[in-house]
Design a protein that fits this description.
It contains 9 helices and 12 strands. By secondary structure, the chain is α/β, with parallel strands linked by helices. The strands form 2 sheets. A 6-stranded mixed beta sheet has the order 2-1-3-5-6-4. Strands 9-8-7-10-11-12 form a 6-stranded parallel beta sheet, sandwiched between helices. α8 packs across α9. Bound molecules: NADP nicotinamide-adenine-dinucleotide phosphate. The site of NADP nicotinamide-adenine-dinucleotide phosphate (NAP) has 25 residues, from α5 and α8.
Length: 287
C-alpha cells in the first residue's frame, strides 16, 4: 500500500480563492516532500469539530494556515502560542507536532515587514496612514508598535469606528501604542504628509471598486500599499501610479508569510531556489 501523504492546508470560510496551495505545493514538489496542501472550507458550525479532530493520532494533517474568520478564534484550540501571536492575539499558522499538540504562530505581520524591506521602505520615523481595523490591520498595527524601527505616527480610520476604538483599547494594554491615533473621518488620515498609506480592507478586490481615498491626496513621496493582490493592479494602486506615488500590492506579503509558515512546518530554512519557485507559483495564480 502506498504511504499516506502528509497533509497541510488552509482552514477558513470561504477559502476557494486562496493562492496558498499553489505556493506550498510548489515547495513540497521542489523539495521532494511527499505532502499535499489542501483547502479546508469549514463553516462556523463545524469549526470546533475540525480543530478537535486534529488531535486524533490518525489524522494526516501536520500543519495549517488559518484565515478569515478564524484567526482569532483558533487561539482557543492551541497548546502553545508564539510570543508575537500572543501580542497580536491572532494566528495564521499552526504546527501540529508528533504529540498532536497544536502550536500557533502569526506570520502575517513579519510577512508584511519583510515585504517592506524588499521595497526598501524603512518605517523608522515615518508617518503612516492605515485604512481598516480587521484581522490584517491588527497584525500590522501591533507589529509596527513593537519594532525598533518605530514609525513617528500611525493614523488609522475604520468604517465602524467602535470596532477600531475597541481594538485600540485592547492594543494599548498589550504594547506601547502611543504612536497610534484613531481618526473619525478618512479625510483626517493626514495622507498629504504621510510616507506610507496601507489599505487593509477588501475594497479593490473588484476592479470596479471605487478607492476609499481621494485621488488628489496621493503624492510622489508616498508608498501606497494595498493588501489586496488579486487583481494585482487594484483601482487604488492604479490611482497611486497616476499620481506619481509608489504602489505595491499584497502578493509580497502573502509570499513572505507563506515562506515563514512553511519553515515552521518543515523546520527548515528554505533556500533561494525554492523560495523563487513559491513566488513564481503565486505570480502565475493571479489574474
Ligand atoms: N496580502 C496578504 O498576505 C493578506 C493577508 C491578510 C489579508 N489580506 C487581504 O486584506 C483584506 C482584509 O483582510 P482582513 O483579514 O483584515 O479582513 P477582516 O478582518 O474581515 O477586516 C476587513 C476590514 O475592512 C473593512 N471593510 C470591509 N469592507 C469595507 C468597505 N466596503 N468600506 C470600508 N471598509 C470596509 C472592515 O471594516 P468594518 O470594521 O467597518 O467592517 C474591516 O476593517 C482582504 O482583502 C484580504 O484578502 C491580504
Amino acid at each position: 500500500m502506498a504511504e499516506e501523504k502528509a497533509v497541510y492546508g488552509i482552514v477558513g470560510y470561504p477559502v476557494a480563492h486562496s493562492l496558498s496551495p499553489l505556493m506550498h505545493n510548489a515547495a513540497f514538489k521542489a523539495l521532494g516532500i511527499p505532502a499535499v496542501y489542501k483547502l479546508f472550507p469549514v463553516q462556523e458550525s463545524g469549526v470546533d469539530d475540525f480543530f478537535k479532530k486534529l488531535r486524533d493520532p490518525r489524522s494526516p494533517i501536520l500543519g495549517l494556515n488559518v484565515t478569515v474568520p478564524y484567526k482569532e478564534r483558533a487561539l482557543r484550540y492551541l497548546d502553545n502560542i508564539a510570543p508575537l501571536a500572543q501580542k497580536i492575539m491572532a494566528v495564521n499558522t499552526i504546527v501540529i507536532n508528533k504529540e498532536r499538540k497544536l502550536v500557533g504562530y502569526n506570520t502575517d505581520a513579519p510577512g508584511f515587514l519583510s515585504h517592506l524591506v524588499e521595497l526598501q521602505f524603512n518605517t523608522r520615523g515615518k508617518k503612516i496612514a492605515m485604512i481598516g481595523a480587521g484581522g490584517s490591520a491588527r497584525a500590522i498595527l501591533t507589529v509596527l508598535c513593537m519594532i525598533p524601527e518605530r514609525p513617528d505616527s500611525i493614523k488609522v480610520y475604520n468604517r465602524t469606528a467602535s470596532r477600531l476604538e475597541e481594538f485600540l483599547a485592547d492594543l494599548r494594554a498589550r504594547v506601547d501604542a502611543g504612536i497610534v491615533e484613531a481618526v473619525r473621518s478618512i479625510d483626517d488620515l493626514g495622507i498629504p504628509e504621510a510616507d506610507l498609506l496601507i489599505n487593509t480592507t477588501p475594497v479593490g478586490m473588484d476592479q470596479d471598486d471605487t478607492p476609499l481615498v481621494d485621488e488628489n491626496l496621493l503624492h510622489r513621496n508616498l508608498l501606497v500599499y494595498d493588501l489586496v493582490y488579486n487583481p494585482p493592479m487594484t483601482p487604488l494602486l492604479r490611482m497611486a501610479k497616476a499620481r506619481g506615488a509608489r504602489a505595491a500590492n499584497g502578493l509580497g506579503m502573502l509570499y513572505y508569510q507563506g515562506v515563514l509558515a512553511f519553515q515552521h512546518w518543515a523546520n527548515v530554512q528554505l533556500d533561494d531556489d525554492i523560495k523563487q519557485k513559491m513566488r513564481q507559483a503565486l505570480e502565475k495564480g493571479v489574474i
